[in-house]
Sequence to fold (450 residues):
Amino acid sequence: MKKKVLLICSLSLFMVGLDITVVNVALPSLGHELHAGVSGLQWTVDAYTVVMASLLMAAGSTADRLGRKRVFIVGLTVFSVASLLCSLAPSVELLVAFRVLQAVGASMLNPVAMSIITNTFTEPRERAQAVGVWGAVFGISMALGPVVGGTLVSAVGWRSIFWLNVPIGIAAILLTLRFVPESRAPNPRRADPVGQILVIVLLSTLTYGIIEAQPAALAVSVAALVGLVRYEPGRAEPLVDLRFFRSIPFASSIVISVAAFATFGGFLFLNTLYLQTQRGLAPVDAGLMTVPMALMTVFAAPLSGRIVGRRGPRLPLAIAGVCMVAACAMLTGIGPETPLAQLFAAYVVFGLGFGFVNAPITNTAISGMPRAQAGVAAAIATTSRQVGQTLGVAGVGALAASGAGASVPWWTLTACGAAVLVLGFVATAGRARESALRTAAELNPEALPA
Fold:
């Protein structure tokens, strides 16, 4: 039964992860048909990730109160219906609106799936391996997105990338009804509407400020952050428990997640525009160019999960950081005549790095946390992934549009990869583990660590 539950949770995660990146390769096609500029293409990607990031923690606590299975099914239903609406969108404005609805459904899937897994796999090593599988599926789905998207766009059209979610969503709903038991938290956290509004304002204005180059929006995002930091500690059950960040592994894993997924999101966005705009490749050819990246992710992700379960997260994080730095540095000088062998090598190296990063950042985030708080910690870690993806697309898109130079976005992504490498060592040091134990004892002195 445990394996079936893990399979169902992984299926939903595969669908959400695939949708994050499958859109990238369709951007030139839908931009041409819907007459969308660069900012419209950025919003097509970022509207999904920023809304999902804003609602993940609230969705997790709602599932604790109302029932995880129930919220999970609602999320699958909303996501599937919204996917169908996206395929029918007559304008980029409506497409972005339907992507927002799609993100609302997606926000009910990731944290709830992690809560189900955490409460199903209670033995530490068994749970670490299950989390490794879960993280691996997420990485594999995101890496396969450009390949699947390119094939569908060339064969049928960009609208077909959204049709794919409907049968998968229906299958996941039926399997959940049959095999996943209902569960609730014994002491569910209270709703925090003020904290939720501050999170939404923070992420949306930050993204808008970067994409549209609006200093006023960035100022609002800073004010929202200050408000969040001042308001949340005064609540008995805050949406974001800032005490979590006293754990060095947890705090480091959040920054690693942002840096790694900013690198990944920016990498895909830049490559999509480069391959189809500068090199003139068809969508299917552009998708096939990223096959090496997808294959290496498929190879590395489960291997990373096994290493995390047996030896801990340090080695996978080190490999991930080195590979991301190397791959992005290899692409800093690309142009229309860049040899395909150089691109192939960069995609192989990047896929290896991305495949190794997912399992250790999830495991590091929940390592040492009391079991009751493990789901919340995982929800924050998942949120940081989406924030990173959002900022990566917004940041490199803004740099590319600013005329700063073709190499500047790539050097920015190289710096993000370096952050993964450095913080990987910080998060796994002896002092870091001690801080995690202290934080767990402070959060819940009587609880068993996760």
